[in-house]
Each structure stands twice: as C-alpha cells, then as structure tokens.
Amino acid sequence: MGEILAAAPLARELRKLWPGVALTVSTGTETGQALARKHFLPLGALVCYFPLDIPWAVRRYLERLRPHLIITLESEIWPNFLDLSQQRGVLLALANARMSDKSFRRLLRYRRYSIDLINKYDLLSASGRQDYQRLKELGVPAEKLHLSGNLKYDRLLQERDEARARNFRRLLQGEQDLSAGKEPIFLAASTHPGEEEVVLAAYEQLRGPYPALLLVLAPRHPERAASLAERLTNRRLAFHYWSRLLAGPEARRHPVVLVDTIGDLFSLYGAADLAFVGGSLVPHGGQNILEPAAWGLSPFYGPHLENFRWAVEILEEAGAGMTVTDAASLAAAGLELLKDPERRRDLGARAQAALVPHQGAARRQAELIAELWQRKANSRTQIRQK
Predict the structure, then answer these.
(1) Which one from 3, 74, 195, 196 is the annotated catalytic residue?
(2) Could you confirm whether 175 is annotated as catalytic?
(3) Pick from 72, 91, 324, 352: CA 20 to 30 A from residue 230's CA?
(4) For position 338, which CATH number holds?
C-alpha cells in the first residue's frame, strides 16, 4: 500500500512530461489493488495484478501489455521478470530504490549473482544516502545510480487534505462536548499482532489522568478488526467501527474507535493529538513514521525500525520522535506530551519541518526516467541514420 501511494506523485509527474503516455499499474496484493484502483483509474491508467515470477506467466503478461518502459519501486527485484523484460528490449528503472539491512546482507553474500541481476536495470534511483551507498557497494555503475530522494517524503506534505482531517476530527468528537475539540485523540496506527495489548494497556493508564481520551486503533491489516473487536469486548472497552461512523448511522460516544477501512489512515493522523506507529514494537521492521510528522505530530515508535532507518535519521536530526519499548514507556511518553501542549506542538513542528528539504523527489525521478527514454530514442535515431 505504501508503494502505491508513493507511486501516485511519480505518475503525475510522468504525465506532465509525457501527456499522452499510457500507464499500467500493477500490484501483488488485494489491498494494494483496491488502493491502486482508487488512485489510478481516475488518471486513465490500467490497473492489474503483477504476475507470479514464473517464466510462462511473465511471458504472457509481457506479450499482452507490450510495455516500452517498466518502473518497479523500492525493492521489487524479480529475476524472471527482469530477465525476460530485458530480452524484449524493455527499459527498466528501479524508482525509490531501497535496500534493507536483511536484503543488503543477502545480496552482498551472493554478490556475483545479485549484481548481474540488479544491473539488468537501466536506471536506479536511490531513496536515501544509505541505500545509495549500499547499491554502490554492491557494484552498480555510477552512470546508472542516482540519489534523488524518497517519493514517500514528496507525497506527505503535498497530499494532506486538511478539510478531510477536520471532518474526521468532527466525526471522532461525536455527540460529546469536547471543549471545542481540545480533548485529546490518541491514534495507534498500523499495529501488528503483539502490539495491540501494549497499546491498550498504555491507553488504560492514560485514561486515569485523562478520562475523556479517545483511542483510535488502526491495525495494519483491516481484516484483523473482527479479532480486535473481541479483544476490546473482553477488556470491557466499548467501541465503534470507523466504517459506521463514516457511513453516518451512529455518532461517536464510546471511548475506542476501531478502524476497519483502507485509505483513511493518513488523514486520521491529521485528526489526532498523539500518534504511535506500529510494526515497531515487534520485529517487523516498522511502518512509515514520517506520515504523522507531515501533520505536525512527533510520533512514538518502538525499536524495530530496520526498514525505516532513513526516517528515524530524519526525525532524530530534527530532535523529534520518541522511542518506546513497552506499555509503561508508551504511557509515560503520552503523558509527557499531554501535560505539556507547548512541547507537543514544538516537537510536531520540528518533525514537520524536517520533511521540507526532501520535497521534489517525484519530479527528480520522473526527469531521470524521461532522460533515460530520450537517450534510447536518440540511440535508435543514430542507428537508423547509419
């Protein structure tokens, strides 16, 4: 889902450079497919599933679509797909290239094979300094490798819908008079199994000094909402499904809202006062901790952010973001910011300002792709002239 959202600004920039380009967007999951249809069908793009990396499946896919240029994102490196695409003369670009600790160790161990595979790309655009250095260490030639910034930075500030966030805040306030919206909202976002119990324990501690505190619980996979509903019932925490608040049949009056929809999380950050980002208390690798930063929130997160080291570096350089390890430390961090609104606003402003220098990544990557295409077109012209 993150890659689909990151691809949107790149697609828009490519359309500006090539107004008549025919776009096809593929995904590998059902949730990604639903999000792609929402964001790309209005652009006139074809949306389909990515093929299994089996030669006969890839061949049928390429024969049907007949692409001239293929752009994959982050770490989508599929051997058969790359090999068969290259054989057909298709240009290959890896945008927003990312190299996690695990992937780098594996590729470095088998460098003789992995560099041949990675070098099938005609262009690699690294999303961060560490990714750039790792690709360089693997042996990617300098003429193919570029450091152009992270697409996920670009979309964050540009795609904030403040009116939508205000509406979400109004729905969350519900029937109660919350002093003109001054009562706090605690969003626990993208949580994974093993994290909800920590969040709920911390929330119950915070409700002592802040009895009107609202918890918005948004699991990473919305299909887990039913099992989480049972857990909330066992804890005697009354809740609403977010989909029902959105649809309008009921107004918020219970202390917990359970998010069971796709595509609403980013705007929910804009409605919150506190934000914990999941996938970080368990060894999953983390989720994008810069999404709350875009809304002026200094996020809480656990120690397992191996896939988002670049984001941690940005927040640490800005003096924002808070690492927690358990329910007690999460409750303590929440209490610290609830007791000191001025500090909460200052940390949030620092987190948001840290994103500003990274704007323009989509435009830079689109221009690199356009230059790649132009070089190939010029090469073909020279061959025909000879």
Answers:
(1) 3
(2) no
(3) 324
(4) 3.40.50.2000
